[in-house]
Design a protein that fits this description.
Layout lengths: L1 H5 L1 H15 L14 H7 L10
Length: 53
């Protein structure tokens, strides 16, 4: 895992899948940066979810 931390694109590719699996595919349950929330929801298919201001 320490090697993955050194390469951010690889880290996110692996960890995003693990986070989705942990929350049974419901990305809206994950804690995320408010500035990145809309981008993440769009990427992982959370359609019809309103963003928190």
């Amino acid at each position: 895992m320490m090697l993955l931390v050194q390469i951010p694109p690889l880290w996110f590719r692996i960890m995003d899948k693990r986070v989705l699996a942990h929350y049974d595919g419901d990305i809206t349950r994950a804690d995320m940066d408010p500035a990145e929330r809309d981008k993440v929801l769009a990427r992982y298919g959370a359609v019809g979810v309103e963003s928190i201001p």
